[in-house]
Amino acid sequence: MCKKLDGIKKRVKIAAERVGRNPSEIKIVAVSKKKPVSQIKELYECGQRLFGENYIQEAIKKIEGLGSLKDISWHFIGHLQRNKAKFAVRYFDWIETVDSIRLARTLNKKANDIGKRVNILLQVNIGREESKSGFLEEEVLKAINAISELDNLNLKGLMTIPPKAATVEGSRKWFKKMAELRNRLRETFSYLSLEELSMGMSNDFEVAIEEGATIVRIGTALFGPRD
Ligand SMILES: *Cc1c(COP(=O)(O)O)cnc(C)c1O
What we know:
There is one protein chain. By secondary structure, the chain is of the alpha/beta class. 40% of the residues lie in helices and 18% in strands. Pyridoxal-5'-phosphate is lined by residues 31, 33, 54, 77, 161, 201-203, 217-221.
């Protein structure tokens, strides 16, 4: 498993250097959904510290099972229902999939209840797909205005899952659009640090990095296929 991680790190480095970026500005989140605690431990032993989970119930069991492992940073990357907000802020350091102002307000309240500050990303439905959650491009500005007021949330940037593309290159235009959106928002909200752009998964992370991703979410390429 360390070999796989090293391989991914090498590919991240090559993709970053291809476009003159510093590889150290790119974080790899290991997506461990549907994978057992034993495999998370194994990857932790290889030095991996950022892990992503999609389902609250499954994540709680695993995070508690791994309680003894120090300085893991957990990223929530699934669709989050408001009635699970309390658990999301308790167990996760990052919530990448904030897709409504209402959800943000609930997260803020629950984080305040336990005296915690949680990093969040706004999920953007860049392909305007019915099947996906997330803010539409034109809704993001208003959302940031509302969400940046919430004291217990630390708004760090944007996240997206682009439409399925027939080829890896097919995803590029969506990644480009996301980077442009993030850059525009950064100018508007220069007092916030909207530096993060979470995009790219096992099959397209190199293209995402070429277009500016700072967080890539890798499942299959590290843990093998899920069934
Ligand atoms: C499952 C998942 C991933 C990882 O996908 P792979 O193709 O296995 O790398 C990344 N991001 C999100 C939001 C996911 O749900």
